[in-house]
Design brief:
By secondary structure, the protein is of the alpha+beta class. The protein has 13 helices and 18 strands.
């Protein structure tokens, strides 16, 4: 069983007690990949050559095969050094806006080092696969070519000419047949097989094996290469749209497993699963606003059309994280920042610019008098009132206790959640 090292994000040069000579060539490749993607940094300590890990705003899990060690990076917003439950609840709520997945999958969590973020991805696949099978697998048209004694589908003349005329006439045909053995289902079987062979959790491995056996009765064990998966994931229709979520999970598992073809017995190694806390926190806040702030139309960055405004620094694209609207009028602008320190002058300038430009585009140029920054609660930084650069408009920084919010979500205390979310857009009272 692998040793387990747990770090928090934004940790500088944490000693791992792993020596450089312990690392395999694939371990070094993984570390270089993570450093290139700005997920972690690594170095070696002096004469001892111990591995030092520095983290930034990413959370995740990576297994180093040489020393048989798993490095886990967890969110800094939780007080406990190891808080798998809240981490999983946070990810579940961020991805779906509810805890349906957590309720279905929590039996797979052990409270040990097996509860890695990679394990969560594996459990996510199992949960989605079970739900899909309850709904019924999708049949798709699969193209077949066949040299048959009877005509079926389209005759392939270029091959028909090659038939031996001295023998009983046959027809070289191409036809479509509706069946379960489609690319959509092969990808799922491929991902289940990866989980079956790589998971650290025995219960997860056994469940993946059971589901894979059920699928293999109607689906071929054929690996779907990356280009084919990518093409499939770009061309959903009304019939197969319900596969989109499970395909995304499958794609992550297959790509990050480092296995080219799981069915050819290639040696496998687990490659990292990492998430950007900046993106996760922004999505978390957006989902809370949309669910509990019912007095406004909540528009997020993805739904808001960007336009160009002219500030002191020249033309600038405007697409705030969240805007609150009432009868076609933008009332408030909200910036979501995952920051451990106080906001900067640049942040204040940006919000001042947003308020000025959005106010100009309101009917009758109705002004926006103040805006908000939503950021996690950290000991070194507090909520407060600021003045936006140039515009002299007020900016209120609201720091929220993520751990406390997750407890309310878990206990389904919707009334209290609604009350708290409303306070995030109220001016600070001295």
């Amino acid at each position: 069983m692998s040793r387990n090292i747990v770090l928090k994000e934004h940790t500088k040069k944490q000693s791992t007690e792993i020596k450089e000579d312990d690392l395999s060539s694939s371990d070094i490749e993984i570390l270089k990949k993570l450093e290139k993607e700005n997920k972690i940094d690594y170095s070696y300590q002096g004469k001892t050559h111990q591995l030092l890990i520095s983290t930034n705003s990413h959370i995740g899990s990576v297994k180093l095969e040489g020393p048989d060690v798993r490095i886990n990076v967890l969110p800094k917003v939780f007080e406990d050094d190891v808080n798998w439950e809240d981490t999983n609840i946070f990810l579940d709520y961020t991805s779906s806006g509810n805890l349906d997945y957590y309720e279905n999958a929590k039996n797979f969590y052990t409270g040990t080092h097996e509860d890695t973020l990679l394990n969560r991805l594996h459990v996510d696949l199992i949960s989605k696969c079970e739900e899909l099978m309850k709904q019924g697998l999708l049949k798709s048209y699969v193209v077949h070519t066949e040299n048959s004694s009877s005509m079926r589908g389209k005759l392939l003349m270029q091959y028909q000419m090659l038939n031996d005329a001295s023998k009983k006439p046959k027809f070289f045909c191409e036809f479509d047949e509706l069946e379960y053995d489609s690319v959509e289902n092969r990808v799922i079987l491929q991902a289940l097989t990866v989980v079956e062979r790589t998971s650290d959790n025995q219960d997860v491995r056994l469940k993946a094996m059971d589901l894979a056996q059920k699928l293999s009765g109607v689906v071929q064990k054929t690996s779907v290469p990356y280009p084919e998966r990518k093409k499939m994931m770009q061309s959903y229709n009304r019939q197969n749209l319900r596969y989109k979520g499970i395909h995304y999970t499958c794609h992550q598992i297959i790509e990050e497993s480092g296995i080219g073809d799981i069915y050819k017995g290639e040696e496998s190694h687990v490659v990292p699963v990492f998430y950007d806390m900046n993106e996760l926190f922004e999505t978390f806040v957006q989902k809370l606003f949309k669910k509990y702030l019912k007095s406004f139309e909540v528009r997020t960055q993805r739904s808001e059309k960007a336009w160009i405004g002219k500030g002191d620094l020249g033309p600038r694209s405007m697409r705030p994280d969240i805007t609150l609207w009432e009868r076609g009028i933008c009332k408030e602008i909200i910036d979501v920042k995952y920051k451990t320190k106080d906001i900067s002058a640049g942040d204040l300038y940006q919000l001042g610019f947003y308020m000025h430009e959005f106010g100009k585009n309101n009917p009758h140029e109705e002004e926006i008098d103040f805006s908000f920054v939503i950021t996690p609660e950290f000991k070194k930084a507090a909520s407060g009132e600021y003045v936006a650069v140039k515009t002299e408009k007020k900016v209120y920084v609201k720091r929220i206790n993520v751990e406390a919010i997750l407890k309310l979500i878990k206990n389904k205390e919707d009334e209290e959640l609604e009350r708290q979310v409303k306070t995030w857009i109220e001016p600070i009272v001295e």
